[in-house]
Model the fold of this input.
Amino acid sequence: MSDWNDKIIGEFRANGGQVGGQFTGAPLLLLHTVGAKSGRSHVNPVMYQQVDSGYAVFATKGGAPTNPDWYYNLLAHPRVQAEIGTGKVELIARVAAGGEREQIWSAQKAAYSGFADYERKTTRQIPVVVLEPAP
Done:
């Protein structure tokens, strides 16, 4: 997975935030987190959805039975950075719940059917994380 992420990250940075292949035309950002256990810096490419208060990202892990590591990093250290296009923004992460989560998640599944596939593959509720501008 690390090599795959590294390739996407390199392509993203070389092309002003654009990548090809399965991500052609998809909104993608590079999420910078601090490791929950290690305290080390991590960067993960993730699809996002623009929402009123910022950006929503989805802890799908391809429909795996567990959440991705970056999700736990956000819970431990909610202050993050994201590279979007050629810019970098400071954000605060929070987990969406209830009606807010359902609205965002339903819109993502409607726009990108792969997200519905991820949901079918797992018994867990896939977390929706809202990234809002840091004060």
Notes: The first helix runs from residue 2 to 14.
